[in-house]
Amino acid sequence: MTIAGNKRKHESKNPIQVALIDRFKRHAAALTRSAAPKTVLDLGCGEGFMLDALLRAGIDAQFTGIDLSETALEEARERLGTRANLEHADARQLVTDGRSFDMVMMLEVLEHIPDPAQMLPILKQLTRGHVLLSVPREPFFCALNFMRGKNLRRLGNDPEHVNHWGRRGFIRFLEPHFEVLAAPPVFPWTMVLAKPRR
């Protein structure tokens, strides 16, 4: 997602969108709390909205966020200050450096990656415990966009979304590598807490 698009989503004044994003954040915090991680990595942290939400929810952990956009990271640093360690880095470099975390989050990122399956072994190597993942739940996400007049020529599909999963399809995509522990209803997204199959 572009920086402008992600900001618009999180800073929307539309009451329906605000309610949906708030519920998304509450579910992410509840699943993180249930996993009880001491260290959390947010892959594709963008402007730091989700890290900020977890911190505001009182999650007691050491937070690290990485992103490939220095512009997004600058805004994340303004938002988070010293409450999280923010790095301009690629997940593969963290694996090469031998780093690992109790929980790795990748929220609203996999739908943007041309070959998302390549990320699953990387996620397994980076986590010592859990992963928290989310993607738009299709076809509902596109339908809702279309109904509100967004991306009409693409039938509601965001031009940067190159992967599309229904809830069951996303779980099937993960299951060879991860055991799904929870997948609460976070419409119009699929959110999953899982642990690696070793």
Written description of the protein model:
The chain is 40% helix and 24% strand. It has helices at residues 3-11, 15-35, 49-56, 70-80, 91-96, 119-126, 140-147, 167-174, and strands at residues 39-43, 62-67, 85-88, 101-107, 127-136, 178-182, 185-186, 189-196. The chain is built from 8 helices and 8 strands. Strands 1, 2, 3, 4, 5, 6, 7 and 8 form an 8-stranded mixed sheet that branches. The protein has 198 residues and is an alpha/beta fold.
Indicate the proportion of strand residues: 15-25%
Average residue pLDDT: 89
- Number of separate strands: 8
- 3D shape: globular
Keywords:
198 residues; eight-stranded mixed β-sheet; 8 helices; 24% strand
Per-chain topology:
Layout: H1 3-11, H2 15-35, E1 39-43, H3 49-56, E2 62-67, H4 70-80, E3 85-88, H5 91-96, E4 101-107, H6 119-126, E5 127-136, H7 140-147, H8 167-174, E6 178-182, E7 185-186, E8 189-196
Parallel strand pairs: 1-2, 1-4, 2-3, 4-5
Antiparallel strand pairs: 5-8, 6-8, 7-8
Concise structural overview:
The chain is α/β, with parallel strands linked by helices.
